[in-house]
Amino acid sequence: MRRSVSIGGLAVALVLGTLGFGAGQKRYVANAQEKMSTMEVKIDNFSFGPVTLTVPVGTTVTWTNRDDIPHTVVSTDDSKTFKSKVLDTDEKFTFTFSKAGTYPYFCSIHPKMTGKIIVQ
Amino acid sequence: MSEKKKDELLNDHNHDGVDRRGFLKCMAWAGTGAFCVMKGGVLNSYSLSRLSEMNTADMMGELSFVQISDSHMGFNKPANPDVAGTLKAAVDKINALSSAPEFMLHTGDISHLSKPEEFDTVDQILKSATPKDVFYVPGEHDVLNDDGKQFLERYGKGSKGAGWYSFEKKGVHFIGLVNVMNLKAGGLGTLGHDQLEWLEDNVKHLKHSTPIVVFAHIPLWSVYPEWGWGTDDSAQAMAYLKKFGSVTVLNGHIHQTMQKVEGNVTFHTAASTAFPQPQPGKADSPGPMRVPAEQLKSVLGITDVNYMQGKQALAVVDSSLA
Q1: pLDDT tens across B248-260, in order?
Q2: CB contact under 8 A, B183 and A108
Q3: Distance (Å) from the C-alpha of residue A61 to the closest C-alpha of chain B?
Q4: What distance in Å separates the CA atoms of residue B138 and residue B148, rounded to the nearest whole number?
Q5: Which of A45, A70, A114 sits opposite B186 (nearest CB)?
Q6: In percent, how much of chain B has pLDDT > 90?
Q7: Are both B77 and B121 inside the same structural domain?
Q8: B31 and B123: one domain?
Q9: How much is the ipTM here?
Q10: According to CATH, what is the number of the domain A37-119?
Q11: Which residue of A43, A51, A68, A117 is the best one to mutate when testing the B interface, meaning the one whose CB has the most B CBs within 10 A?
């Protein structure tokens, strides 16, 4: 008697578990897709975080200035790919990377601040 | 703090000869009105009350000017929500000096975001200062967005390149340098080849006894490279000035007073009139440092500089706004 109840219980649990897992899996995929399209760099304490960010081609990167002093985001590669205006506190700069490559950049106001976007 | 207390604590009034302990004490008192004169390697320390005596006695050929720096007009974050107010307090301090300065040097970061209204506001406030002539060099905050075009239009008449120039006052040779343009990733301040060439030529024919004052925004000595507090190619500039018996270098940028003496060269940085920054390495980053509101004026300040003809060295005195 007990065994059948427990088997039944196990079966129910398995079904529920599968459903749950399925839904969870869908959620995971959706998040991964979001992650692929937008990535963030936080500017704080006179540094870019993360310093090096690797993203897939087609990603839009958003830099947000959390410091109470203005900063800029200026690429230092040969083609000077991107250059933000001056970002005061809470201002943002976005750039979409459509070509693979390595894009080093810095803050032109505080040149010790450097970062890199690697697009693969 | 009373004047009397300052007199008691200073060693060696009217002392001739190198006095290292007195020198260190003078450095500790910088910011409350101590007066340290380096005279060809010899330190004389005086209390502020004696300074006025000396000025009266040496009226002939006396030169007095003030350095202010880093007004950051437009800054409005918690470290100081009223930078116009503190700049006005600095002007009041200047106007209260016993010996009226002839002119002012502003060592940059006049504005916070290079906005026209920010420059306008500073111009307006400085109009009420007794010294009517102001000589400027740009800070990195003054040349945003337009490669310094606006700065040059406003303050760069007669200057070369990005705004470097020189002028004479009572036999003292002043040189304004620009080290905030074309900054390279990972680098420090930079003067650049053209400016260095100009500097070499500018001082070539001056007599070695000519007192030299160099002013630029970012320190021309290595204060703290990790925070960008230095200039990549300043060594070359200092080499051109090696022959002179008295060189005073006045900088800003680091928002605190600091001094270093190297042979005949005195390097000095001014406090900001806007907000203080942490001492090298004492914080995560060199950003605006918050202090209790009632303490703010005590960490902002002006620098009074006096030159007496016949005495080689310039006397550099820092005073806080409170």
Answers
A1: 999 999 999 999 9
A2: yes
A3: 20
A4: 8
A5: A114
A6: 76
A7: yes
A8: no
A9: 0.79
A10: 2.60.40.420
A11: A68
Nearest beta carbon to residue A85 from set B112, B145, B185: B145
B47 and B95 in a single domain? The answer is no
The C-alpha of A12 sits at a distance from chain B's nearest C-alpha, in angstroms, of 55
The pLDDT of residue A7: 55
Beta strands (DSSP E) in B116-171 are 133-136, 165-169
Residue of B nearest to A47 (CA): B285
b (16+ CB within 10 A) / e for A88-106: beeeebebebeeeeebebb
Per the structure, the complete domain to which residue B282 belongs is given by 63-320
Dist. CA B269–CA B250, nearest whole Å: 6
The mean pLDDT value of chain B amounts to: 85
Q: Residue B14: pLDDT above 80? A: no
Write the CATH number for B147: 3.60.21.10
Q: pLDDT per position in chain A (120 positions), as tens?
A: 445 555 555 555 555 555 544 444 444 554 554 455 679 999 999 999 999 999 999 999 999 999 999 999 999 998 889 999 999 999 999 999 999 999 999 999 999 999 999 999
Angle at B29 between CA B177 and CA B274, to 5 degrees: 50
Given an 8 Å threshold on Cβ–Cβ distance, is B228 in contact with A86? Answer: no
Counting residues of chain B whose pLDDT is more than 70, the rounded percentage is: 80
Nearest residue of B to residue A76, measured between CA atoms: B185
Count of domains for chain B: 2
Check pLDDT > 90 for residue B46: no
CA B63/CA B59 separation, integer angstroms: 9
Q: Do B287 and A67 touch (CB under 8 A)?
A: yes
* Contact call for residues B215 and B107 (beta carbons, < 8 A): yes
Amino acid, single-letter form, for residue B189: G
